[in-house]
Amino acid sequence: MTDKIKHQISDELLLAYSAGNLPEAFSLTIATHISLCDESRARLGAFDSVGGSLIETSDAVEMSSNSFEATMAMIENTDNPIVAETKMSTNSVLPQPLRDYVGGDVEAIKWRSVGLGVKQAILPTSKDATARLLYIPAGTAIPDHGHSGMEMTLVLQGAYFDEEDRFARGDIEIADEDHDHTPVADIGEDCICLAATDAKLRFRSILPRLAQPFFRI
Amino acid sequence: MYSEADATTRQRQTASATQLHVAKIQRDATVGSRVKGLTTVSSHKSEMEIDWGALIVKIRDQRDKQAFKALFTHFAPRVKAFLMRSGADTSLAEECAQEVMATLWQKAHLFDPSRASAATWIFTIARNRKIDAIRKMKRPEPEDLPWGPEGEPDQEDVLALQQESTKLGAAISELPEKQRELIEQAYFGDLSHSEIAEVTGLPLGTIKSRIRLALERLRHTMK
Question: Which residues of B touch A44 (CB under 8 A)?
Answer without folding.
Answer: 142
